Amino acid sequence: MAKSRTEPDGGSGIKILATNRKAGHDYFILERVEAGIELRGAEVKSIRAGHFSINEGYATVEGQQVMLYGLHVQPYSHSRLTDQDPDRPKRLLLHRSEIAKLIGLTAVKGNTLLPLKVYLAHGLVKVELGLGKGKQVVDKRETLRKKDADREARRALSGRGK
Question: Lower CB count within 10 Å: N or C terminus of the chain?
């Protein structure tokens, strides 16, 4: 289940429904793009309720469309339609120029489109895609070392003021 929270800037109208924290651990995020999602029926209500998962998600460019795979949306419990596939590919809504840019960026070997966040922006379900390049094991260890060093530095500085 995804947990939701509201952005700290107050009245922006953005509510984060889920984040893909594993993407930041496994990939270098080179670029970010916001896209709408084409949903059917009660999928929006199910997403608003937090009954979805983006951890296994990825996006591909097919022709002149961008498709999101691996976004598992559980069927809404109060819906009359019971035959909806929870793992069906969802089309992402982007401008043609953004799609053309993504075609060029994903053509490079090792680059992948990943969903980083799913959120509500003024009542509409949006997804933040990230162009990721896979990390090697050495890179992951280095990132963890940097995080630990930053954490220790913050602790040392916060202890000084007391």
Answer: C
